[in-house]
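Contributing new records

If you add data, match the layout below exactly. Sequence lines come first and carry their own label; structure lines follow with theirs. Keep one chain per record. Anything else will be rejected by the validation script.
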Amino acid sequence: MKSSFRVVDLTYMAICSALIAICSWISIPTTVPFTLQTFAVFCVLELLGGKRGTVSICIFILLGAIGIPVFTGFRGGIGVLLGTTGGYIVGFIFMGLIYWLSETLFGEKLVVRFAAMAVGLIVCYTFGTAWFLFVYARSSGAIGVGTALSWCVFPFVLPDLVKMALAITLSGRIKKYLH
């Protein structure tokens, strides 16, 4: 059975999974703390492309699921994924799949990559917020969609768009050194 990934691909995917973990630990303290986790996801997709980037995201999530503290706040375990913010982490897989599909169907033009990331982010927000509403309702009681969005999405939209633009710019400069 032949693997579809070369050793160099596997190495890049492992390094990028570690990059996502490291960036998830970097927190910018504000009223709502921001991490660089989404920045890393955007960078990984830009650097490795949709297929290898999605695999890197899955590796990161699997490492966290088995208890390695790769998630925000040096946390790990399936409990994090089943918690209120777990849907946003799982949503990263959808970001990768959308990027991969867009890349396959429409090519690698800048506008396509940016649109794929934006759509992927919207899907991640949607899935994560639905997950949040479900888990929060079971543990603390139901809240409205508007309240959930004001807690979990609206404070992050502008910073995530900035992270996306920075990731595209930075990755463009780094990508020429990857073979």
